[in-house]
Amino acid sequence: MKIKCKKEDILFGIQTVQKAVSTKTTLQILTGILIKTLDDNHIQLTTTNLELTIETKVQAEITEHGSVVISSRLISEIVRKLPEENVFINSDENNVVFINSGKSEFKLSGMPSEDFPEVPQIVNKGFFSISQNLFKNMIRQTVFAVSEDETKQVLMGECLQIKNNSFRLVALDGYRIALREGEGINSDNDEFVKELIIPGKTMNELMKILSSSDEENLNISSTDNEILFDLGDTRVISRLIDGKYINYESFIPTNFNTYVSVEKDRIINCLDRAYIMAREGNGNNLIKLDIKDNLMYIVSNSDIGGVIEELEIEKQGEDIEIAFNSIYLLEALKSIDSLEVVIKLINNVSPCIIVPSDMENQLNLVLPVKLR
Question: 267 with 275: CB under 8 angstroms?
Fold first, then answer.
């Protein structure tokens, strides 16, 4: 293989696919990047950890076609530190790789491409298309609620529900629910209903790759076991989590006794300050909200001190005193983009609902902590 490419192009490609490199494995081939020529103008970089696969195309001039696997760690560090000139990569029949740029020349041992795991093939048809920026925001606004409890595999993923041209992302961990809805395009224009459970790790890595442009689309296709996110030059393929997702809708209340409207940034700033003391407590990051008339008092106490924050609000309904894990409350509030939020409460032992004041397609549920 003999190729020439711009440093910024191949470095961007390396950084994109590195997100699927296996960090804990005894299989050396999984620590590498498969580089292979596609045509006279492109190479393809691929990585996999057997659960997640990422491949991307990079523009290049091809003198000799071929393929080789190179240590992800080494090629990343080498290319990043090369001068701002063209990068030449050559490999011979013994998988010895030469990397040249300017007056720098590296020689390293590669691995045979034949040993690299076969990439799952998912035909990109019958897909669902949405804006990359929209889906990126959907992940950001939900993935924080994915469970880390390995005994509950289903909850370690996000549930993607697709019905016709509507989709919903849901994550829950037993203490909170994060839900976001959006609109896309069903390529078949037929009745289209799917429910897929995608690993939270996949969603976190996908979020880093997705564009922040509303003009670029993402196509989603799936089989029974895998899902394909096609970004154009980059494809992300992930195994799905097998199982039936929890009927989360049954946990979401619809009738409330107290409604609080408040500026999002103001309550976040108060909670951030209260968290300084809450984290010094017994490990539950406890804060108490004492809601009276049009004021909210945010209180936290620990062995080394305490804090009281006073916040003006608009309230409808009953006064209430309720406690929460401050991290759960903060993450829910920070996921919302609107300037004002509405907090809906029943009593001090029932779930709290937090929604944007100007949108109906996002919802956060947080369970309170019982007050003694």
Answer: no
